[in-house]
Amino acid sequence: QVQLVESGGGLVQPGGSLRLSCAASGFTFSSYLMSWYRQAPGKERELVASERRGGITNYADSVKGRFTISRDNAKNTVYLQMTILRPEDTAVYYCNAKGPLPTTARNYWGQGTQVTVSS
User: Fold this and answer.
1) What mean pLDDT do residues 37-64 have?
2) DSSP code of 43?
3) Does position 52 have pLDDT exceeding 90, yes or no?
4) H or E element at residue 15
């Protein structure tokens, strides 16, 4: 049974930092493209960052230089380190797995974790 379990969300002041974690199980983690998406109220879900095996990363322009995605294949976990947070980063953040690469035949989602940036 596939599971993606996010943690690490919460309330943080502008300029602060948070680290999100996503623990995966039930599939061959190292063979999947792992991504973080977010969805703010009234907006569409958008890609924040992704990482495939080999350390190849991709970031939304709005988070470049502030967010870092990383993965630990030994722990089947993907992380999102978020720094210099802004109120506009407020959203539900979702972990996503697509693969097994090079296909995207499978597409899995976590339940989401709320990040609120406010003073």
Assistant:
1) 94
2) S
3) no
4) none
